[in-house]
Amino acid sequence: xxxxxxxxxxNINHQYRGRAFNYELQLEKGVHGIVGPSGAxxxxxxxxxxxxxxxxxxxxxxxxxxxxxxxxxxxxxxxKRGVGMVFQDYALFPHLNVHDNVFFTPGPADYxxxxxxxxxxLAGLAHSFPSTLSGGEAQRVALARTLWSAxxxxxxxxxxxxxxxxLRKILRSQVEDLVHEISIPTMIVxxxxxxxxxxxxxxxxxTEGKIAQTGSVKEVLNHPVxxxxxxxxxxxxxxxxxxxxxxxxxxxxxxxxxxYAISHYKLSLQKRExxxxxxxxxxxxxxxxxxxxxxxxxxxxxxxxxxxxxxATGISVGDEICLYVEDSDIIELAxx
Length: 336
Description:
CATH architecture of the largest domain: 3-Layer(aba) Sandwich
Number of strands: 18
Structural class: alpha+beta
Radius of gyration: 24 Å
Strand content: 25-35%
Distance between the termini: 30 Å
């Protein structure tokens, strides 16, 4: 390796069941999120890191240790990588109680087992079996077992997917505290952008077996690089340059060959100095959850606009409205 050394340096090309997976990724220590549509290849990436899937071509280096190099025929087996993984279904041993599940593998010789169970709020469940546990309890057992083996890298595959919303929020907070307290580099696969924003320092978006974007959580969520990423991140206000320049009166700001996106959070009914303006009559209005979908008639042009419910408060069909957006909040999207 040359140049800056990363905690993880990965470059992989792999074929599986007629699909191509191409990953190039360099990460530093911290908590990293992996997001993308279903079937994009997120779990496949975790399995390659775990060592249960051997890529056809590529190289993986973790903390200066060579895990994979197809050219020199190096493939470190899973049991020698020091990777811990919490699976979606937790994979607890049904014939073992909580105590024996957690301490199935050797752990730190100097750490008291009772204290370890207490850290995960499992001391009172030590003699219970998996069939009697709630989803949240089973998840804590799986996490306690994985971390007991002191892995160098922790992988979490949709750790909260099987839990209801209220329990997800509680356990997300507990996991956040534990991961930062124990200070183990962590990668989390999730469909929930709120989880990623809460737990992660950086995030990678995977689409169709390729890495589309990697960066800080703030950077990726606020500046998607292309239309595919923008739509996955729920940016629905996407316009072609020619249309947007006319509707928003941008005086040539847009190139007609490009596309631009505006987050629904950035559109406002409040007048702002030097803001760009879209004026039109509301032909239809649909409020769903935290998002309002408006169909505007702007000088004869039908324009679909998504705004926050708060921004659309008090609006009715037939109203003439002005929407404001700062020039800096319009993101240019790269061609796919």
